[in-house]
Each structure stands twice: as structure tokens, then as C-alpha cells.
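G., the chain you wanted modeled:
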Amino acid sequence: MVGVANAQMPGSNTRVTAQAAPGASYNFSIPPQPLAGAISAFSRVTGIDVVGDGGIGRGVGSPGVSGNLTPHQALTRLLAGTGLSYRFTNASTVAIQRPNADGGTGAAPAGAIALDTIDIQGETAWGPANGFVASRSATATKTDTPIIEVPQSISVVTQDQMQTRQVQSVNETLNYTPGVFAGSSGNQFNSVGAQIRGFNTTPWGGAMFLNRLRSISNSDLEPYALERVEVMRGPASVLYGQNEPSGVIGLVTKRPTEQPFHEVRLQGGSFGQRGGGFDFGGPVTEDRSVLYRFTGLMREGGNGIDFSNDRRAFLSGAVTWRPTDATEVNAFAMHQRDDSKWNYGLPARGTALPNPNGRIPITRFIGEPAFDYNNTEMTVIGYNLQHRATDNLVFRQNLQYSHEIWDYRNVTPGSLQADLRTLNRTASRDRYSWDTFAVDNHAELKATTGVLRHTVLFGVDYRMRKGTEQGTWSGVVGPIDVYAPVYGSPVFLPADNFGNRQTQNFTGVYIQDQIKLERWILTLGGRHDWADTRTVDTFNLGVGGVTPTTTQNDRAFTKRAGLGYEFDSGVVPYVSYSESFMPLSGTTFDGTPYKPTTGIQYEAGVKFQPKDTNLRMTAAVYDLRRQNVTTPDLDHPGKSIQIGEVTSRGFEFEAVASLTSNLNLTAAYAYNDARVTRSNGADLGKRLLRTPPHLASLWADYTIREGALNGLGFGGGIRYVSASAGDSLNTFYAPAYTVVDAMIRYDIDNWRFSVNATNLFDTQYVAACANVNQCNVGRVRTVLGRVSYRW
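Predicted structure as C-alpha cells:
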């Protein structure tokens, strides 16, 4: 059978029906990738439909194509090394075929255009997506599942989106993602801090996953290393164990490529920013049983805050080995080092609130330039193994080990004195070190029972984390005038006055069943976790000189259920229920260890991904509650009890589209009402810190594909953040703000020249506040230029 490649290709929902001219020239920029994705990109550029034998392109990669070429020239390059050929059947249709498909004449067999569906494996949940619209994800199910079948809100930021916006951090990657407030920590360089649906999302809080494993704790992984960033909003403990109710941020690194791929790039911009990078990949052996990928980057420069010069060095390597047709191992290693200064922000009086002395410059640094530093280092090695025992049974093992160091020394802000310009300060020093080992083993079985089709997942995972911490919080340093700073105050730091060694062991057993009955899609899952923590206080001796040691053992069972219905039009309404748990350190007045905090979410929504266009839309409403929250114990002053509750309710909308080969679009809006709903304190009924109720964003870019300006692209985005509570009692708010971003680029042959501007109009704004003494300011206008060459 043969079929239209764009009509119903797994991972690509593009159909182009415009008439094309095979003799005309088009500007192509199609990177090496699986053949299905390359053919889909070719069709979007030219308007030519592509047909081929069923199964003809399975496992085949394309070397890609770049430059101003005719369709004939482009197809010749796209199919180079694949063993396949092509033939135009009319002006707007081309057939992909095996050599001698007709027995030697080279012509298509009789009846070849009586079409069905081409069976080419296109996008996978663990690989690149073509353009802005990803069709599949594994973050929410650990299986390669179409996003519209996932009964929970999920967004995917593709590599094309990251490259178009020239993102410099994971936080910037998430700026246009619905329900995610990625700027809550302000102008920071090497720390991921975001709010999802009103709740904190931090690596050490269980939100950050690298290649499906929680092995990194604090580092902001370089976006140039990533193929995609996925965000699943809401509780995720049923698959991942201990986790905050906010959700999961899944980082997927670049994998080796089937065809040779090479890229080098240089960049420079505002505040002395400069750097370069490279990305190479391709086959090691002629039979493509061994592939490689090697990526590196170095950059440094300011970020708009006085005395803040940031440096980053990143290097990664990956190898894919296929010893048999049924087995594949993807091994990788990476190392990253960041050197920077931590920007604590400025007092509310003079930023979010009026000050009779005027507005404090948002570029002001309140630390001591010669004293402060914030350095992180991360090394990760691991592999993803997959073995297909039968057509219906797959075993996977994902394993990682990481070593991380966070070493910082800071002067931190205190309160303003009576003149509202002299800022009291303190000093601190801290050093963390973590070693983490994580492994996840699971089996995926596809089976049929009567009229039900099942995708059953059964797994066991384990994570061990050993960490040390030592430092002091009692340093002494003089105050500073925030309007006329004089630096050089002596800093006194006594010997370290705290420290501990901590070992944590987490084990989980989980099962999931994705069930289909005609158009109905039912997802059920359950998991049991064991979480054990042992902490040794290395700085304080107990009775008899014995080092104090505390242990905490927690158990939890979490579950999830979701139901959806898929219409022919691509509309899938759904409802779901999900749970989370997170161990909590400490005890009540009588020494009883705290129970884990828990999360419960009810969500209803509708997803729309029509089969005849490259578009996905999602709308959802949710009710999310975090329970077992600590609140003051009124009967025992100074102690806490766990009767507190925080409730987050809201609505989210997202649209992502590559409407033609020329136009990309993302649009997002989120309303979130997150409040304390049970408490013994004065915060009852108050909004959560750093949680703006309204977030909205829009991005669009357009590329000219013909004429004298062929290859010229331009676009921009706008982000709106409403006012957010500045302290736990809501006595003041960080004002609302709007930021505009812009880009322009030019592609010619294998070259790309681009310029991006973040905060184009240099809006001065406060991103969010932690209290009246600390408001984190946003990034000032930053312009970054880049030139890259691919071959």
C-alpha cells in the first residue's frame, strides 16, 4: 500500500494541499532527523504531498537539507544514503519508493497512487519534534503517548522554540508556558525557580527530571543540551514518587543522530556577553548500529546587575548502541560549571512601594563585589536501555548517577533603617555536596482483552541521595546606602556553625493501564512508596558526646485516574484525578514526626489537535489542594501542627501552531486563585507569595520563503504578569508588568544570523517579592546576536 506522508503520519499532523511548482526554488532549512519529520518539513515548505509504500521509511534517517533549492534538488539530498528514490506523479505529488519497485524500470507499480497511509516512524516522545508543535510525550505516562490522549495538562517546549527565542536558561525556556510563573526569582543566572499553579517548583523539591529520572537537585541545565522541555501540571507522584503538587518539569537531552550533523556557533551581546558552542552527531559505523552526539558550550558576560558577571562551561557526549534490532542503549555523560553572583533583590520601599528618596536603580547590587560568589558544578552519567522482547512487550531501564556541588558566599539584605536608604546586611557561607543514584525499571505490555486494548506499565524505581552541608549564617558586615553605595565593608565570618550529613533512600512500585474502548481512553495508575531519611548533625554533640542522629520513615500510596473521548475532529474532552505526597522534616510538640504533605487535584479539560493541520490547543480547569500543611499550634506556642491547607483553583489555555512553513505561533493564558484555606495563623484566606493570579503570553514569528528576502524571519512576543502578593499577610503587592521580546534572523545556505532582544522596551519591573526586605527585580533590556553554521 502507499499513502500520503502528511495525511496521517505518527508524530506529524500536517497535510499540505496547496499546488506546488517542482521547477521553482524554495529556501530549505531542514536539520538531520528521522525521514518522516524531514518529509513533513519538505511538504510544509513546498506544498507538495508525499506518498510511499507502507513501512518504507521505518527506522530511516535523513541527512537534512539547507539552502535555496528546487524540490528535485531538495528531495535528492533528503534521501541521500537512505537507499530510497522518488518520482513526481503530478505537479503536487511525489512518490517515495524502493529502487526497482517495478521490477527494474524504476517506475511506480500500476495503481501506486491508490493511496492508504505511509508507515514511517516520525516523532517519538524521547526525540526531536518538528517545528513548534510536539505531538507525543512520555512525561505524563512513561510511555510514548500522543499528548491529546494524556488526561492531564502538559506542554512541550521544542528545540525550535528554544532556538527561535535564544533562551539562556531553563527559566527563560518556560516564559511562554501556561500556568508557569518562571520569573519568580527575578534576574538569576543558574537557579531554576518557578511557580506552577501557585506552588513552588524547584529541583530539590522533586520537580526536575532529567531523561525521566530525578537525579539533579539544583543546577540550571544548559538549554543547548536539550531536545525538549516538558511541563506536566498537577500532582505526579503516581509515576515519580515524592513530589510537590505543582507538577513535573521534564528535561530531555539531545540524542545521537542517524545522519552526520555538525553545527558551530558564536554569540555576543549586551553587558559584554560572548561565547560559542558546537554540536556534532552522526553514525560511527556504516550500518548505523553505533551513533554519537558531542555538544559543548562556553559563555560569559553580565546580566544587567552591577558587578554580576556570569560564566558557564558545558560539555556532553552521548552514544547510541544497537547490538540487535530489538535492543538499543543510549548512554550519555555531561559536565557543567557555573560561576556567578546571587542577586537577592532590593527592599520593597523603593521598588514595589514608594520611597521618599526615590526609586532604587534596579541594577543595584547590595552585596560586596569582592566577597560574594555563587558557584555550582554538576556531573551526570547514565543510560537509557530499551529491549523489545516481542512486538507487544518492551523492557526499559533508565539509570543515572550525578555529583553536584553548590558553593556560595553572600552578603544578604536585612531591613531598611529609619532614613529608608540605609540597608542593614548580614553575611553567610554555605557549601552543599550531593551524590545521587537513580534507576527505573519497567515493562510495557500491549494486550487485548475482549473489546479493550491495554497498554500496561509495571515498574520499580529506586533513588539514593547522599548529601553534606556546612556553613555559617552569622556573618557580620556593615550597612550600605542603596542610593549611593560605597563597597568594601569588611566581612567577618566565624567558623562554620552548622552542618549535617544526610542519606535518603526512596523506593517505589507502580502500575499503570492505558485502556482504549473504541473512542474512549481510560488511564488508571497506582503506586506505593517507601521514603527513609537519616540525618547526622556533625556540628553538635549530644549527651555523652554522641553525635545526634535523626531518622524518618514515610510510606505513601498515591493514585491517578483519567477518562477521555476522542472525536474524529481531533477534539478530546477529559476529566482526571491525581495525587501527590512529599515527606516533611520536623516533629510536633510531643516529638511525633510530621506526616508527608499531600496533594489532590481534580481537572477537566479539552484538547484539540486536528489531523489536517499542525496545531494543538488545550483548555483546562482545576481544583488543587495541598494538605497536612504546618500551622501554629495554639496550645503549644513555638510549635506547629499539620491541619493547614492551601487551595489553588484556576483555568488555563494554550495554543501552539506551525500554521504554514512561514508562521509559528504560541498563545497562553492562565488564571490562578491560590489561597490559604485552613490555618491557625493570620495568613488564613490570604494569597500565596509570588503567585500572580493572571499570566498571559503571545509569540509569533514569520519567515519569508521566496523572492529577494527569501530566508528572512522576524517575530516577537509579549508577556503579561499581574500583581502578586509581596508577603504572607498580603500587606503589599508587587505591581503588574508587561514585557516585550523580539527577534530577527536571516538564513542563507548553511548560515543563520539572528538577533534577539529580551525586554525590548527596557521596562523596569519587580518580578516578585518574598517580604518587605526582598523584592527580586526583572531583567533589563538584553540584546543577543548569534551566528551559526551547519553542515
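Residues 2-116 form a domain with the Phage tail protein beta-alpha-beta fold fold (CATH 3.55.50.30).

Shout if anything looks off.
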